[in-house]
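Hi Y.,

Following your request, here is the sequence exactly as I used it, all 137 residues.
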Amino acid sequence: MTADFEQLTYTSVMLRKSWENQLSFFKRLENTRVPEHGISNFIQWMLLNDYSKTFFAGSSMWQLLISKPTPNGKLNYQQTLSIQFDSRISCYKMKYSDWDIIDTEEDYEKATCWETTCIAIELVPKFLEFIHWNTKW
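Below is the corresponding structure, written out as tokens. Let me know if you'd prefer a different format.
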């Protein structure tokens, strides 16, 4: 089953709106018992440059999920970069998974193609490092 938003053809305006929506979501977390740990700062940085018109922002369980539409404008959740704060080690974990490269559910660990851990000040440089590493994405 495919959700309605997965059927849409995304424009740069729609992609930017996804970042604005996620900024609102993570800002609302600031008023709850679930800390957002500064992910809103990263989202604000994305909104200040053209990456917000290229990538789609989503969230799940307090993780920021970044996907890139295919050339025809459809979203591909099979290839997603997740960013979440790990409060046990007080660092961000970034993980890129490509579910298109595995054949069976049992191979789920092989879907992770890139991952790193960093502190808040390194979040943007690590994102840029990822973009340069994964030029096909």
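The chain has a mean pLDDT of 84.

Thanks again,
Q.
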